[in-house]
Amino acid sequence: MFTWQLLIFIALLFYAFGVTLQRHLLSSLAVRGEIFGTVLQMLIGSVSFALLLPFGTFSLQGIEKVPFSIVAMTILFSILTYLANVGLQKVEASRFTILYALRAVFGTMFAGLFLHESLNGSQMMGMGLIILGILISNGRGLKGGFAGGEKWVLLAAFVNGIASVNDRMILSSMEGLSYTVIAFLFPGIVCLIIFLRPTIVFVRSLSARQWASMVLLSCIYALSTFAYFKSVELAPSISQVISINMTSVLVVVLFSIVFLKERSNLIAKMIGAGLAVLGSTRLL
Questions:
Q1: C-alpha span between 107 and 193 (Å, rounded)
Q2: Where along the chain do its domains lie?
């Protein structure tokens, strides 16, 4: 049986693979980030449904108990689709991940506000070490300000923090794997309605090889999200899941150095990564 710690490790590893591949595709394809995100959302939802259907495990049971949370999820994830994809297209993967890791801070803050969760002293120390690692990895901290693309990423982190708490409310009534399907499809449908014409143009322009890359990326994210939502179900505190999931920044930084050749501020990134790993051990 999978523990929540193992599940979150699987989730962050696949997420790191996904971000690296997504950054490569966003850089190589002539498409706006939000259009790419729309197609990706629909593909991940479809792949998730296809993986669950043969086992008869897809169910909408419990959705009627959280109608307002489902509406909030659809709105928040639609906004997140836009912000995250536009941000990742404008910012290198390692830089994106470092900034986006601030979603853990926002998630913990909102978990305390709405779910009345709290962290003990050891966990607070872990959070501090992780945040310090993020700032050092940033190279210039926060004092240098943020460029346009980086502001999109920060907004995405804020929205993700709210959405993570809303996820916990929904998962108290719905089964996690089934929720994965609608968590991608519902926002994807909204984005498709908004960006219908350019999305059709983009889909028609894709070659067979590019389609294969998009499907592979969708499978990676589907498996990552399955593992993440199951860990949220099993974990005693969503704050711990969010904070440990922050260590995905370490793996993405390493992958971006190796595969995407993002080697600026390399020493700062490695020092920050070490601090973040140390901090994550305080959260277990």
A1: 29
A2: 4-281
